[in-house]
Amino acid sequence: MKDTFKHQGLRQQLVKTIKAKGIVDEKVLNAIGSIPRHLFMDSSFLDHAYQDKAFPIAADQTISQPYTVAYQTELLKVKTGDKILEIGTGSGYQCAVLCEVGAKVYSIERQQELFKKTSKFLPKLGYRPKKLIFGDGYKGLPDEAPFDGIIVTAGAPFVPKPLLSQLKIGGRLVIPVGDDVQVMNLFIRKGQKEFEQHELGEFRFVPLLEDKN
Ligand code: SAH
């Protein structure tokens, strides 16, 4: 596992690319500029790690496109120490970005293989999320609620109620909603029962799967 000047140079190019696409949050740009994304991917994809593209990881899943990761993170408006729940740990890249911007991260993954691999991998790189959970993201994490922010990194066919109810007042839920194509939705909790909803751009994610057991 190593990071080189070549990788660092490519990362700075990537930062320029996502800046040109509209990302302005300096903390987010710094995170993308400092996290060695190539180490989150299978070695055969090393040369592609700093293109602004999604790529396959284990268990038929993908590491999200850097722009998408940056866009979702920016929408969360993370402040240092904020409690953030991520649904879909996957490679751990988004989780690392959240750690880097100062969040206390809780992240749920339903594929055991990915859960195990990423749980071992993140600490090796020095990223220490509060808790990684093997489980079903549709339920959220009631034991640790409420959260300042919740981010869903898979395409949800609908907005799971538990995720809305596990937000603090003022908390933000960032969730791509739709089947083949998803619309990024931002919910801001204004009161016990009041939510402000914003429908933003279109994206493509792997599906948020429902558990059958
Ligand atoms: N955030 C990840 C993106 C991974 S892709 C990264 O940065 O690499 C989406 C992930 O969501 C996959 O790993 C998939 O297994 C997981 N997933 C799908 N349905 C889920 C569910 N119901 N609960 C938790 N994780 C789920």
TrEMBL record:
<comment type="similarity">
    <text>Belongs to the methyltransferase superfamily. L-isoaspartyl/D-aspartyl protein methyltransferase family.</text>
</comment>
<dbReference type="Pfam" id="PF01135">
    <property type="entry name" value="PCMT"/>
</dbReference>
<protein>
    <recommendedName>
        <fullName>Protein-L-isoaspartate O-methyltransferase</fullName>
        <ecNumber>2.1.1.77</ecNumber>
    </recommendedName>
</protein>
<keyword id="KW-0489">Methyltransferase</keyword>
<keyword id="KW-0949">S-adenosyl-L-methionine</keyword>
<dbReference type="GO" id="GO:0005737">
    <property type="term" value="C:cytoplasm"/>
</dbReference>
<keyword id="KW-0963">Cytoplasm</keyword>
<dbReference type="GO" id="GO:0030091">
    <property type="term" value="P:protein repair"/>
</dbReference>
<dbReference type="GO" id="GO:0032259">
    <property type="term" value="P:methylation"/>
</dbReference>
<keyword id="KW-0808">Transferase</keyword>
<comment type="function">
    <text>Catalyzes the methyl esterification of L-isoaspartyl residues in peptides and proteins that result from spontaneous decomposition of normal L-aspartyl and L-asparaginyl residues. It plays a role in the repair and/or degradation of damaged proteins.</text>
</comment>
<feature type="active site">
    <location>
        <position position="64"/>
    </location>
</feature>
<dbReference type="GO" id="GO:0004719">
    <property type="term" value="F:protein-L-isoaspartate (D-aspartate) O-methyltransferase activity"/>
</dbReference>
<dbReference type="InterPro" id="IPR029063">
    <property type="entry name" value="SAM-dependent_MTases_sf"/>
</dbReference>
<dbReference type="InterPro" id="IPR000682">
    <property type="entry name" value="PCMT"/>
</dbReference>
